Amino acid sequence: MKRIKVTPTWCFSDDDGQRLDTNLLRLLGAVHRHGKLTHAAAEAGISYRHAWNLLRQGGDFFGVSLVELERGRGARLSPLGEKLLWAEQRATARLSPQLDSLGSELNLAIQQHQEGIQPVLRLHASHGFAIELLPQHLGELQLDLQYCSPLEALAALNRNSCDLAGCHLPRGSVGEKARRKYRRLLKPRNHRLMGFIARQQGLMVAPGNPLGIDGVAALANRPVRFINRQASSGTRELLDNLLAEAGISAANVGGYEIEEYTHSAVAAYVAAGMADTGFGVAAAAQRFGLDFVPLATEDYVLACHYHSLKEPKFDDFLRVLRSASFQEAVNRLPGYSPHQCGSVIEIPDFL
C-alpha cells in the first residue's frame, strides 16, 4: 500500500518577492560532501552550468558568496554557505518527529476511506532510528505512529489511547530512577513487554575528539560547550542520572539549559560547530560525521496490555520483529542491536 511521507521544504524570499530555487540547499549539501562542483551537480541531478547559475543566484540574493571555488582545490562552502546548510539540517532533524506523526495520521485517514481496511496498530513511542524502520517492514499492517516521551506513551497505553508504548531503560544502577517510574505504570497482571532493541548512548564530539572529552566529568568546570535534550525525554533523564552518579551539578555544565528535540538535531548542532559535544545515540553521531564516546546501554521495549497479545495484528507485528530482514536492518544502525527482538517479556523480569 502506498504511504505518504511529509518532508520540509525551505523557501527563501526577500522584500521584493524574489525567491531562490529550492535546489540550492541540496547543491550546498552535495558540495559539502564531495568538495567538487562537478560531483555535487551530478548528485543534485542538475547540469554543471545550472549549478553555476544556482550559486551565482544565491550569491546575488544574499550579497555574499555561498561557495568558494579555487583552481586545483575544488569547492568548499563559505561561512554563510555552511550556516545555511547546518540550519537546514538542524531544522529538518528537529521537525522530523512531528512530520512523521502527521504523515502517520494522513496515511491512517486515507486507509480508513479505502475499501478493504487493514488492521491498524497504534504505537506511541519516543523518536529513534529503530522506530523509524518499522513502517518499511510492516507490509499490510498499518501503523499509526505518534512520537512522545516514554511516560506519555505509557500513560496513553493505560487509558487505551494506543496499543503499544515504547519505553527505554538504561542498564545498571543509572536506570534505577526510570525503573521506579515504570513500576508505577506497568502492572505484572495487566501488561507485557515486547523486546525490541538495545542501543548505546553517549557523547557526540567533533572528529578526532580534539578536546579529549571522555565522559560526563569532562563537561564540568571546563570551557566545553554542551547541547542538551529536552527535559521530558528519556535521554535527558539518562544524562541527569549519569551526572548525579558522578557528583556533577548541572549548573557546572556550560550549555546545559540549551535544548534540542531529537538525537539528530543534537548531532547537527555539534556538527555545525555551535557546541563541542551533545548527548545521544551513536547512529546520530555517525550520520553527521562525528565521533562517539559510549557511556551507557539501554534496552528499548514496547509495552502492551496482556489481553492484546491474543489479537492477530499482534501476531503479525511480532513476526516482523522476529524476521531476519528487520533484525538485519537494526544491526546496520551504529550502536544498535536487536536484543530480545520479538520476545514477550514478563514485567518483573524486566524491572
TrEMBL record:
InterPro entries listed in its UniProt record: LysR_HTH_N, PBP_domain, WH-like_DNA-bd_sf, WH_DNA-bd_sf
Pfam families in alphabetical order: HTH_1, PBP_like
PBP domain residues: 134-322
Domain HTH lysR-type: residue ranges: 23-82
Protein's name in the database: MolR family transcriptional regulator
Organism (species): Vreelandella venusta
Lineage: Bacteria, Pseudomonadati, Pseudomonadota, Gammaproteobacteria, Oceanospirillales
